[in-house]
Amino acid sequence: MSSLLPKQNSNLDFDEATQKELGKFLESENARMRLQQSIHTFTDLCWDKCINKISNKIDRGEETCLTNCVERFLDTSLFIVKRLEETRKNLS
Amino acid sequence: MSFPSNYGLSSSNMENRKQAVMDQVRNELALANAQELINKINEKCFSKCITKPGNKLESSEQTCVAKCMDRYMEAWNIVSRAYISRVQRESHYQGESL
């Protein structure tokens, strides 16, 4: 993302407080982007699992399926990490 | 990617340049997000609606794609709500095992 800043003397053009502020801003924008990226990934995955026919509105069943799909995906991710940790502990 | 070329050192000028950088970052991210969404919709709705590609996009296929777009964005919002509420719940119970 540093490529967005002017090329020559990029740091010298801003005083220290402004550099700090911009750093914080970039950090939060980065977090927001990662969040959105995850939402894209989950929507992709859960769309395939939950949406069969294109109707005029997403019905209750599909909505529940989408919500559960996100929750269970995250549970799976936590489960895998936990299990790997346990395996590692048992080995040492 | 153009920047204001007047790099003076007055503080209001610096404030302006800071705002310009922030606006640029916001715009680029919004654009990237929109592009990602469009690509996904294209992929998903093509596979749902155009089952047998003919020699033109049939009007029934267009109707399907239009509906599918709306449904995909609806799904995106549902997923977004579910994920954000999960993240909030979990940061609330930070430290407790799941």
From TrEMBL, chain A:
Domain remark from Swiss-Prot or TrEMBL: The twin CX3C motif contains 4 conserved Cys residues that form 2 disulfide bonds in the mitochondrial intermembrane space.
Family from the record: Belongs to the small Tim family.
The name this protein goes by in its record: Mitochondrial import inner membrane translocase subunit
Compartments it resides in: Mitochondrion inner membrane
InterPro entries: Tim10-like, Tim10-like_dom_sf
Native source species: Rhizophagus clarus
GO biological process: protein transport
Transmembrane segments annotated in the record for this chain: none
TrEMBL record, chain B:
Matches recorded under InterPro entries: Tim10-like, Tim10-like_dom_sf
Membrane topology reported for the UniProt record: Peripheral membrane protein
GO cellular component: mitochondrial inner membrane; mitochondrial intermembrane space chaperone complex
Domain named Tim10-like: residues: 24-84
Cell location: Mitochondrion inner membrane
Subunit organization: Heterohexamer.
Function: Mitochondrial intermembrane chaperone that participates in the import and insertion of some multi-pass transmembrane proteins into the mitochondrial inner membrane. Also required for the transfer of beta-barrel precursors from the TOM complex to the sorting and assembly machinery (SAM complex) of the outer membrane. Acts as a chaperone-like protein that protects the hydrophobic precursors from aggregation and guide them through the mitochondrial intermembrane space.
Protein name: Mitochondrial import inner membrane translocase subunit
Organism: Rhizophagus clarus
